[in-house]
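For practice. Any example?
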Amino acid sequence: MVVGGVNTVFGYGCFWLLLYVGLHYSMALLIGTVLGVLFNFKTTGTLVFGSHDNRLIFRFVGSYVFTYFCNLAGLRVLVGAGFSPQVGGLLLILPMAAVSFVILRRFVFAAKT
């Protein structure tokens, strides 16, 4: 839970900062996701799933590609409904964390759980 919280704060912080400097939400989300993947792989793999297998990086990246597009679709809907990208991003944190965890557990680190 702590690892997920730290990873979420890091990812949302990157997203928010990139919005603050003027990037469109889709680009801020993309860059934030890339930075999150780099930050999260070792913490999530090692501390949450007990994995030290660096070969899983490709599955891990694939899971985040899927999650990025889900998150982007959700943001488009929420921004279209009048929410700011910042608030939309906050509203999507828990659903995207759940989606990400399920994908990581079933498809990335399945042998370790």
Notes: The mean pLDDT is 91.
